[in-house]
Amino acid sequence: MHEYxxxxxxxxxxxxxxxxxxxxxxxKIIVKIGVMSGVEPxxxxxxxxxxxxKTICDGAEFVxxxxxxxxxxxxxxxxSELEKIxxxxxxxxxxxxxxxxxxDMFLMTLEME
Amino acid sequence: MCxxxxxxxxxxxxxxxxxxxxxxxxxxxxxxxxxxxxxxxAAHETLSHNPQLKDSKTIxxxxxxxxxxxxxxxxxxxxxxxxxxxxxxxxSSPGSGKxxxxxxxxxxxxxxxxxxxxxxxxxxxxxRIKAKGIPAYQIQTGSACHLDAFxxxxxxxxxxxxxxxxxxxxNVGNLVCPASYDVGSHLNIVLVSIPEGGDKIEKYPVMFRQxxxxxxxxxxxxxxxxxxxxxxxxxxxxIKPGVDILEVNIKDAAxxxxxxEWIEFKRKMRG
Lengths: 113, 271
Description:
heterodimer; A: alpha+beta; hypothetical protein PF0899 fold; three-stranded mixed sheet; three-stranded antiparallel sheet; 6 strands; B: alpha/beta; Rossmann fold; seven-stranded parallel sheet; 9 helices; 8 strands; globular
């Protein structure tokens, strides 16, 4: 359960962006959570809604976009979204693949006032 | 895109507020006069005072949530590099044999190493390592289920960096949380022991994805468990196709020696 630590980092980051933009309040946060990022979205949401109270994010809407694992085959150049965690090109079977997305967590957009 | 202000309104004439009101020549076959354009001005007004936005502001941030940790991790790595120390993050469930492996390696290695230990409570692991004459620093995380780069940074300054060649970071026993945190190591070794049962790699893919080397430990117990070691290796390579895998049985010195050789090889490959 490291979702609390992730939320702490997220709240700190959000506060900094809000400060830079002279915002008084954050009304909406959009994050992108990769399926291979190691966080459980449901737990992250609970953690966020618990810890946002009395911060600049109090009352903010939390939107999570779940990012499937996306790879680019270095042989046939096909970009695929994987359903199973199997790092292999579904088209040509090559294991020489580059991860395009789905292994990280990003703060994407903030709505502030 | 407008070259002057970066806005996406393309069909406008440049507004220039030069007090002299002079004309620029761009030196190529076109030269255009800069005049005040009310159109462009109006466009900017609409952008910044959109009545629909009601003073609210939407900002595209697009930053990794663990960005600060990653920056600290890079700092740690630079510190290790400066002292020519190879840093290895050891991760696994509790009880898979991380500390025991380090204890056995202490008597066999040709390189000098130190250990940064992470546990929720007690300094037992650091004490075990120190008893072997190896420098060790214990981080007690309290209730935190993983080490992050900031915690490791503290341990780093407690290490006699000029006297060691390799620094192990023995992470908190946990197959989930440590996988999300870069602590500033160069390599990750993930251990999984036979008694844990034959589905751990598939169940915890994020952790095994991070591995540069997977150690299947306690192989002396294979006969007591229904454990298909080749199946586990195949599963690991679905997650990380190029991963190295070694079998370790602490009672078989040759299997420990192979781990040491892997580390030696990696040290050589870093120049």
